[in-house]
Amino acid sequence: MLSTEKTISENFDIAYFNYFTEIIDVNRTKSVGGLLFGKIFKKTINVKKNIGIKQLSEFLKSSIEVYCSDYENIILIAHSMGGLVSKAYILKDLEEQLKTKVKLFLSLAVPHNGSNWALIGNALLKKNPQILDLTPLSSFLNTINNNWIQQKDTVPRTIYFYGQFDNVVDEASAIAYQVTRQHKVACNNDHFSISKPDSTSSIVYCGVKQKLEEFLKEVQYGEDMRPKKYKDDGELDDELFVLKLLIADVHNKLVLDAKQYFFTAEYMKKAVISAGYSQNDLMELYENIETLYKINFWKITEGDENSSNRLITEIHEQILEKSKDFLKTSIPLINVNKKLGMLHQMANDYDKQIWWAREHSIKDIDEFRRARDANE
C-alpha cells in the first residue's frame, strides 16, 4: 500500500526481510517481518528454518551490508519478533561501527518485554529458539533492553505502535523501556492486523506514512543546512554589513570571515522557513545575539581608537562561548557559524543599529560609496 503513495515511491525504495517461524500450528507458517526502507532495490529475502533471534539479526546485518552498502539512510519498520531482530542488529552495528545507517525505527506490536505468545508456545514448542528468546525476563530480552538504554544517545529515533486489541503483545510490552520520552501510537488493531491495515485511512497506515514523510523533510532540511562553500567574487561587496566593516577599518580577514558567516546564515534562514520551524524561536535567537552585541559595544568602543577589530572579535568569541546556553535554540542544526552569520544579517538590516565604531551612521556609508564611485 505504501508503495502506491507518490511521495513514498519517489523517495524510498522498499525491500522485505521475511523470516520463517512456527509458533503453534506446525503445519502452518506465518511470515512475520519488517519493511526495510532505504535506497535499495525491491527484493524479498527468505529464511526457511526456525533459528534464534540473534542468528536472524546476524543475517539481517549481512543482508543490509550486502544490499545497502551504497545507502546512507535506512528506516526499519518491524512487526512482532521482527522488531527484536531489528534491535539486535542495530545494537550489533553500533558495537562494531559506533554508528548505524538506521535513522528511524518504527516498531509495530514488538514484544520488547516479552510476549504472551511465548508463554503459550513455550508449553508446546520448548525447543523453538525464538520462543525461548520471547519469554518475559529472558536473558536475551534483558540484554537487548539494557544495551538499548545504555546506547540511548546513538540508537535511532523509535516510534512505538501498539494494538489496543492485541492479545499477544500488550501495551506494556509493545513500548520499550528507555530513558528519553517514548513516542507511542495507539491503534485499533490486533496483533496481526496492525501490520496489514485494511485501508489507507487506518491510524497505523496514516501514522507510518506520516513518520516517513517527516523523516523525508528532516533529511531535506539536513541537506539544506549543510555548509556551503563561499567564493568571494565581489557579489557581497556592496552589502550594508560589508560597508559597515570597511568604514570601521576592520581587518580584511575579519571582513572575509563575516562574508562567509553571512552567506551561511542566509542559506540557514531559508532552510528553517522552508522546513516550517517556529519563527518565534528564530526571532528570539536573533534578539539574544543582538543583546550580546549591545552589552559589548559601549564597553569595548569607549576611549579606544582601534576598538573595531577587538569589538567584532570579542562578540564572535561570546557567541561561541554562549552557543549552548544563552544562545541555545530548539531549532536543530543551527551551529556557531550560522549564529555568527546571524549577527551580520542584522548588521545588513537598515532598521538595526549594528555598527563597529561608535560615531558611524548611514551618512558615513553614503559618503564611503560616493568616494568609492568617484575613484572607479
UniProtKB/TrEMBL annotation:
Record's keyword annotation contains Nucleotidyltransferase: no
Domain ABC-three component systems C-terminal per the UniProt entry, residue ranges: 232-358
Pfam families assigned: CTD8 (PF20284), PGAP1 (PF07819)
Main subcellular location of this protein, as a coarse class: endoplasmic reticulum
Location in or out of the cell: Endoplasmic reticulum; Membrane
Tree of life domain: Bacteria
Gene Ontology molecular function terms on file: hydrolase activity, acting on ester bonds
GO cellular component: membrane
Record Gene3D superfamilies: alpha/beta hydrolase (3.40.50.1820)
The entry's keywords: Endoplasmic reticulum, Membrane
Ranges where the GPI inositol-deacylase PGAP1-like alpha/beta domain occurs: 69-116
Name used for this protein in its record: PGAP1-like protein
Species of the source: Bacillus pseudomycoides
